[in-house]
Amino acid sequence: METLSVRALNRATLARQLLLAREPVPVTEAVGLLFGMQAQEPKPPFLGLWTRLDGFQVSDLHAALHDRSLVRATMMRATLHLMTGADYTAFRTTMQPGLDSALRVLGDRAKGMDLDEVVPAARALFEQEPRTFNEVRALLQEQFPDVNERALGYAVRLCLPLVMVPTQDRWGFPRSSRFALADDWLGAHPAEETALDELVLRYLAAYGPASAADVQAWSGLPETGAALERLRPDLRVFGDDRGRELFELPDAPRPGEDVQAPPRFLPEFDSLVLAHADRRRVIADEHRPSLTTKNLRVRAVFLWDGFARGVWETEYKRKVATLRLRPFEPLPQAAVGELTQEGEALLRFMEPDAKETIVTVADD
């Protein structure tokens, strides 16, 4: 069995994630190729698409959200994702076991809650009109006064297929968004049958080669290992440097280790840094603790030679846009120059009215 190095895995995954070159791909097609983008907040997908697509404009994503070819909704790991409407419809039912498992975090707060009563009651509310969850929780509390209000809202998010209603806000959604029933918004009900094998194949196309543990970490589903065993005859199987099996589509791109990887800025919560149990293909184990804040925010990282070399943040004051690089380790001078050039372009995208753009590198 052929062994793939960490660097080989890096280049294979970057190729699928549109990070070896900006591609001239329409925005909806790109999100389909990426098989979703984590969208805990509205802005990161805009930045993630800018760093991947040639000529991407904010209006491109706005248009796709408003024509409903893309939706923002709860999917993998019970988190918000940007998905194509077609993929959401095809795989929402497949994701339900993972969403059901996420309900366990409610613990005692779920006391007295009967989902067979709560979910239909919530559906009836959304059938009247799209609503914010502040509105829904209050209305449900009137019907179920003995159940924890927050638990009611969380259960509805996970058990009722809903999508967020876009607006003309700069990044597509206001702070408190309205939600609509997915079948009303998309004009189609989620598929009745599960499609776990197809979901695993789509994951491999976007993030492979990958182990069973990688697929489970990305999806939050426990049965992905069994799906890989069913698919094994039609897949290629490699090993990694730790002796684990990696499953791969036979015709998927695997560029050579010497292929150049340009500097890239990934936004907060980017799916690339969350899509594997073993994340060394993107970020070294010793730097992984720096990826997440104490309140579980996933920091924005920058890539140099294909790997995460540090985190970044921006500030906009008095028409001056500043991007601060915080490297994990000292950067080569060539890296600083190329990252500065890329960072200035990012600032111009994020803050088009800025009179000045500044990129700095922290010493600590």
UniProtKB/TrEMBL annotation:
Q: Which GO terms describe its molecular function?
A: DNA binding
Pfam name, any one: AlkZ-like
What name appears for this protein in its UniProt entry? Winged helix DNA-binding protein
Q: Which organism is it from?
A: Actinomadura hallensis
Record key words, sorted: DNA-binding
